[in-house]
Predict the structure of histidine kinase.
Amino acid sequence: MSASHTLLIKLFCIIAAGTVALFWVIDLFIHKTEKSMSFIAQEYQQELVDYGATAEYIYNNDGDAALQNWLNTIQTKEQTWAAVVTSTVTALANGVLSEQFVQGHTLGRSVEWKIHLYFDHNPIMDIPFSDNSARLLIKLPQRMRPGAYFAYADLALQVALPFVLLSLLTVVLYRYLMSPLRKLEKATQQFSQGNFDVRINASLGERNDELTALADNFDHMADLTSKLIVSQRQLLSDLSHELRTPLTRIDMAIDFVEQDIDPHKALTRLRSESSNMRYLVEDTLTLAWLNTEIPKSKGESFDLSELVSVICEDARFEYPDKVVIQSGLEQAMITSSQQALGQAIENVIRNALHHTPPNKQVNVSLVSQQRFFTLHIQDEGMGVPEDLVEDIFKPFFQVDKSRMVSDDDRPPACAKGHRGFGLGLALAQRQIEAVNGVIKAQNYYTTTGQVAGLKITIDLPYSIT
């Protein structure tokens, strides 16, 4: 199930079930409370039965006058009325009364029956004599009426009980919602304190709802941010390290100028090192921007094969002693960022030329796949150790200096971006990734198993839109 509405469904189920349970529990408690408070207390029941036995005794032994005096005493004592009546019911018009009616007939309520708590008046209690010839009728004395505290119990059941149950439901919901949020808060605090490895999704177990989606987003953000911070720190560290050499050379050149030791050569060195530093800083800032922004280039339609041809022509002009051979489609229309791809492909081709000895060649080919174009750039240099192939796209990474062509073999016109700082392929990778492309590197070998050079493969989708 998608986590987009999982939390809503869970909360709905919890609240709905809690509401139903709330009303059920309230009804159950009210019913049980009302039932338990609707019966006359046992001692009062026995007292009424004793009143009936006393009335029967006086009626059978002392006569009507004594019975009248006793009834007056009871009425005064209990602040109620009482009477002794016969149980005879006479049927008219030769009617016949059933035995069930005769045996069950009463003129009032039995002391064992429920008393309706919602009635304001007290019921008439019926205590039959032992021979059922007469019965004592007495309005239930107020002191014997059950449910004296029913009003308080009813208030507690309708206010206190819902309050307690809703409080419990609120606590359950609060704990359910706040448990991952507290973990997120703790992780955020740790992350802000420099613990970039903190993640929270694993601590949520099998939970799958909007909060786990939030945790996924946090972990994804933490991954990107931590990688970015580490990358930026490494970039600054590498940049400061790379700047030391040209700065040292500049200091030396300045000393030569001040001491008038071959000032022309010193000024040439100053100009060269200043240019190196400018390109180094520019490329580093561009790389830092690409790492930070991860731009999504706006698509524009252009012929990829024509773009590659222009770059190859420029390369042939700048490296006349090295052959750049291009093959592939006559027309390869693509919707992407021409500027980003142009800079990336140029960097890769220049890198290949940079590591290709004189009188060797660089092969550039473009082929069409099912959903993308594949550009192969293959040099005839010394290759890269297999365990370092993936590292060549890291900023400032350089394989053994012996692999590089010396500065003496590099034409002055090609100095831009190619002073051996190890940023060209890193920039190319970021730019190609920005247009949803993929760049890979691998050595290729001769039939005898010798390394014949390095092959860069770039896969580019027909469109980034």
